[in-house]
Write a structure and sequence with these properties.
Blueprint (H helix, E strand, L loop, with lengths): L4 E4 L11 E6 L5 E6 L5 E8 L13 H8 L12 H8 L3 E6 L4 E8 L3 H9 L9 H18 L3 H11 L15 H10 L4 H12 L5 E7 L3 H12 L25 E5 L6 E10 L9 H9 L7 H7 L3 E12 L2 E10 L7 H18 L3 H16 L6 H11 L22 H8 L8 E6 L8 E2 L6 E6 L2 H6 L37 E5 L3 E7 L7 E9 L7 H27 L2 E8 L2 E9 L3 H13 L5 H18 L4 H13 L6 H8 L4 H11 L4 E8 L3 H15 L15 E2 L5 E7 L8 E11 L3 H25 L5 E9 L2 E10 L3 H21 L2 H15 L6 H13 L7 H11 L2 H11 L9 E7 L8 E2 L3 H6 L2 E2 L21
Helix pairs in contact: 1-4, 2-3, 2-23, 3-8, 9-14, 16-17, 16-18, 16-20, 16-21, 17-22, 18-20, 23-24, 23-25, 23-27, 23-28, 25-27
GO molecular function, one term: metalloendopeptidase activity
Family: Belongs to the peptidase M16 family.
InterPro entries: Metalloenz_LuxS/M16 (IPR011249), Pept_M16_N (IPR011765), Pept_M16_Zn_BS (IPR001431), Peptidase_M16 (IPR050626), Peptidase_M16_C (IPR007863), Peptidase_M16_M (IPR032632), PqqF-like_C_4 (IPR054734)
């Protein structure tokens, strides 16, 4: 340890952070942050290398990304290709990595007892990776598949268009992902050996002195320090200069001063302004870009968005700074235009610049900075603990910021410290009409795109701004409606918590009331001692899912209420008090969370808005257009993100497809929504959870506020019929094919589901979860890594309201019939794994799943979400995980084999199989095709509706008085 340089023995951390930190540097100049967490269930390590896609050779775009992929495929010490992933899977773990412009970040998470073994395997990637030649072509195809996953994503397409229109002398102009063309076909045609180039890249860039390591474990800091010294000191130090610098800027004057008209895949209409900015990293104490993003992105009275919405010109706005490269950032203002206002984009542009003029004329405001500083200090002080892997990965990336003092690694870049008005004014000068360009994204306007972007095929056209137009922007005088925001009344003042000694922490909320119109649950925080709380309310009314039209109108009402509340609630959001109002199959769900000081104020305002709801004609048009756009765009999402909705559509009672809701929405009128809302918010039953730093008496008051606001005429006393899922007939296989809406997408997706039983059968569910645990790593290794069927491959347990089963999902260019055959072949392989598995490996999987189920809750928010999940399912089984573990401990390998043979094996006469495919063309096979989903469901038997798994009286608080 004598050769270890200790940089910091501790760092600034949140109030309730019980971790210990140490920052050290190894003799090879590798810098590491060690974190001792005495309570963590999972351990983690992350290593960030200060090299990324900007270091790609010009003739090999995607090389850094390819290196990230191939690095996982075995090392000299651990040559087995899936040794690392198998070790992690057997010990409750997982891994991932990402390549950015100047950085490549690798990380894993594992059961805390197995950190040393995982670290040893992990460290070898940076010492002696094999880069096996036999893996090269497979991983190039994996990179290509990942790229094709993104080809129809507007986010990727527009980002690449921005890159392609930047300075060609700066690497920002390049293509970072890579594909078969750049990593195989083109280099092959030129006689370039890609593996040799990869080895050259790795051995010239992967140097210890530009690596940042973070380790999180239960072990004390000295033990962790000894481990990293032993395992990471052998990494070679090439003394590479860091961070990387570039001679040319990403944006030259000639790369500015124009509008780019771009045609998107989805039906969207946005105006995006981009201003080249200096690098923000050296200004981490003043955070000038944060100051401006707060004001420009504000949504309250006086803001750009509030004015644009009042004129029907826009529906959304966001602003913020992005890092480009060392020395350079960019600041973007993105305006979501109303569809009918696309041709008025120049007016919108001028309004934005008028507001920028308001900010310039007002100058920096110390009171605004003080508000931002006060809230940033509060947010940091009461920041909740995040998981080990997220902690390690994020902190390793943050360590690459050389300006940040090591004792401020956690707080820098998020906590305002020093008010420097001259710095803020200096950055304000970059918001100039002579220092920007913009992009207008619309499928309809202007319609005469004349160029095509090379990598993604985006159609676009460039139009230069005249000097007169640029000089006119913002010069006509500011509108009186545009002004600085008012002081934020939602900033919490009472941050007290009543911390007491707890002998036994409550495992479930208490049922304070179980009445004909309300069920009130309460859990006073006894673990985290944060001045925060949450309220969750389901306004139960099955009318919301009686028809596709009702389902669409329920979404309409929640979206319209959110629109109405936006200006008021934005200040609350800025003060750490957030809400969400959303429709559900059972009515409407309201969730509010944040600092409990003003929680009741926001609740009262939202409830008043719900009770007073009526349709405003001008807002009706805006919301209908946005909701229509949302439903219509659904089919242009990545297939694997869509397919679960179609599975639920087939399996769930009173479930409606997006297409059905879109068709119904077209007929919805203002009167329809008004009449529906009256019915929706009458005949209600309230299911309510109050949780956090809120007393029992306060919970009663919040419940009274809720019921009194609605009044007794809104209540019902009848039984509430809960929705269920359908049971597929034994021994049958079904196929539901849906043609992809986006016919340009090269990927299909298949979701193969084997229904097993009902959720009330906990032994069945435990067997299913254990089978899923055993299958997950071999499924990924066989179907993705070895067979390269597609970039997106996963397997596991899937639940549908009241039933559960095993599923395998693949997104791929391959034919869905072929994918189904490969899944069946994998299941034969899985049977071999099960039958040949020894007792030791079986015990490892049981232990791994047990650790996952018993993993400690890390935050107040996580605890509240888990309780609400048990409540909203209507099973109320708050000790379900502990009971599952008791069942798991008794399971034997022979029982899992028997389970597999009965429900999953193709040889079983009982097996029930449902294939949902998103395909361009239907492919015939021997399955019973589902043509009409509603007719199909009418032929099925429903599973039992949810019932409490325990007598709710055990949760009751006998001392409570009636509301």
């Amino acid at each position: 340890m004598a050769n270890i340089h200790v940089i910091a023995d501790d760092i600034q951390k949140p109030l309730l952070d019980d971790r210990q930190y140490r920052v050290v540097q190894l003799p090879n100049q590798l810098e590491a942050t060690l974190i001792h967490d005495p309570e963590t269930d999972k351990a983690s390590a992350a290593l960030d290398v200060n090299v990324g896609s900007f270091a790609d050779y010009n003739y090999l775009p995607g090389l850094a990304h390819f290196c990230e992929h191939l690095l996982f495929m075995g090392t000299k010490k651990y040559p087995k290709e899936n040794e690392y992933s198998q070790y992690l899977s057997q010990h409750s773990g997982h891994s991932n990595a990402y390549t950015s412009t100047d950085s490549t970040n690798y990380y894993f998470e594992v059961g805390h007892e197995f950190l040393k073994g995982a670290m040893d395997r992990f460290s070898q990637f940076f010492i002696e990776p094999l880069f096996n030649p036999e893996c090269k072509d497979r991983e190039i195809r994996a990179v290509d598949s990942e790229n094709k996953k993104n080809l129809q994503s507007d986010m990727w397409r527009l980002h690449q268009l921005d890159c392609s229109l930047s300075n060609p002398e700066h690497p920002h102009s390049g293509f970072s992902t890579g594909n078969l063309q750049t990593l195989s076909f083109e280099p092959g045609s030129k006689g370039i050996d890609v593996r040799e180039e990869l080895l050259k890249y790795y051995h010239s860039h992967y140097s210890a002195n530009i690596m940042k390591l973070v380790v999180v474990g239960r072990e004390d800091l000295d033990t962790l320090q000894n481990w990293i010294t032993e395992m990471f000191s052998p990494i070679k130090n090439l003394n590479i200069p860091a961070p990387p610098t570039y001679d040319a800027p990403p944006y030259r004057p000639e790369d500015l001063g124009f509008v780019v008209y771009a045609k998107p895949v989805m039906d969207s209409h946005t105006l995006s302004l981009m201003f080249p900015f200096p690098d923000q990293d050296p200004y981490f104490e003043t955070l000038p870009a944060h100051y401006f993003s707060h004001l420009i992105g504000h949504e309250g009275p006086g803001s750009i968005l509030a004015y644009l919405k009042s004129k029907g010109l826009a529906t959304g706005l966001s602003a913020g700074c992005s890092h480009v490269s060392t020395g350079y950032d960019s600041f973007s203002i993105d305006v979501e235009l109303s569809k009918h206002a696309v041709d008025q984009w120049r007016t919108v542009l001028d309004i934005v610049f008028q507001y920028l003029t308001v900010l310039k004329n007002a100058g920096p405001q110390d009171w605004i900075f003080d508000e931002l500083r006060e809230m940033s200090v509060i947010e940091f002080k009461y920041r909740h603990k995040i998981g080990a892997a997220n902690t390690a990965s994020r902190l390793a990336a943050a360590m690459q910021k050389i300006h940040i003092p090591r004792d401020r690694l956690l707080s820098a870049s998020s906590v305002f410290v020093t008010y420097k008005p001259e710095v803020i004014s200096q950055f304000g000068e970059y918001f100039s009409p002579n220092n920007f360009r913009c992009m207008l994204v619309s499928q309809d306007y202007p319609g005469d795109w004349d160029q095509t972007e090379k990598w993604y095929g985006t159609q676009y056209r460039i139009e230069q701004f005249s000097k007169d137009f640029l000089s006119s922007l913002g010069s006509s005088g500011s509108l009186p409606e545009l002004h600085l925001p008012a002081p934020n009344e939602f900033i919490p003042r009472n941050l007290a918590t009543e911390k007491t000694e707890i002998t036994e922490k409550a495992q479930a909320p208490t049922l304070l009331r179980d009445e004909s119109y309300i069920r009130l649950w309460h859990k006073k925080d006894d673990t985290f001692w944060m001045p925060k709380g949450s309220i969750s309310i389901e306004f139960f009314n099955n009318i919301a899912s009686e028809s596709a039209k009702n389902s669409a109108m329920a979404s309409f009402v929640s979206d319209m209420l959110t629109y109405y509340l936006n200006e008021y609630s934005y200040a609350a959001d800025m003060a750490g008090l957030k809400y969400k109002l959303s429709s559900s199959d059972s009515g409407m769900v309201l969730s509010i969370s944040g600092y409990n000081d003003k929680l009741h104020v926001l609740l009262e305002k939202i409830l008043q808005e719900i009770v007073a709801f009526t349709v405003k004609p001008d807002i009706f048009k805006v919301v209908k257009q946005k909701l229509t756009q949302k439903f219509a765009n659904f089919g242009y999402n990545a297939p694997y993100t869509q397919i679960g909705i179609y599975g639920s559509y087939v399996l769930n009672e009173r479930s409606w497809s997006v297409e059905e809701k879109l068709e119904a929405l077209a007929t919805v009128t203002e009167d329809d929504v008004n009449n529906f809302s009256k019915k929706l918010f009458s005949n209600l039953f309230f299911e309510m959870l109050v949780h956090g730093n809120i007393t029992k008496d306060q919970a009663f008051e919040l419940a009274k506020l809720t019921t009194n606001t609605f009044g007794p005429e809104s209540f019902i006393s009848a039984d509430r019929q809960l929705l269920s899922a359908y049971i597929l007939p034994e021994g049958k296989s079904f196929r539901y094919d849906v043609p992809l809406t986006d016919r340009e997408n090269v990927n299909s997706c298949i979701d193969v589901f084997f229904q097993v039983g009902e959720l009330t059968d906990r032994v069945m569910k435990a067997k299913l979860d254990l089978l899923s645990q055993i299958a997950v790593e071999p499924a990924f290794d066989r179907l993705r890594t070895e067979e390269q069927l597609g970039y997106v491959v996963f397997s596991g347990t899937r639940t549908s309201r009241t039933t559960a089963g095993f599923r395998v999902l693949i997104q791929s260019e391959r034919d869905c019939r072929f994918l189904d055959n490969r899944i069946e072949a994998f299941l034969v392989y899985l049977e071999e794994i099960l039958t040949s598995m020894n007792d030791e490996d079986f015990a490892k999987h049981v232990h791994s799943l047990t650790v996952k189920k018993l993993e400690k809750i890390k935050s107040l928010q996580e605890e509240g979400s888990r309780f609400w999940g048990y409540i909203s399912s209507r099973y109320y089984n708050f000790t379900q995980r502990q009971e599952d573990v008791q069942i798991l401990a008794k399971l034997t390998k022979s029982e899992i084999i028997e389970f597999f043979n009965e429900y999953i094996s193709a040889k079983s006469p009982k097996r029930t199989k449902l294939i949902v495919s998103l395909v361009s063309h239907k492919t015939p096979n021997d399955y019973i095709a589902i043509e009409d989903v509603q007719e199909f469901k009418s032929s099925l038997k429903l599973a039992a509706r949810p019932v409490p798994m325990k007598d709710l009286s055990i949760y009751k608080d006998s001392s409570s008085a009636k509301l």
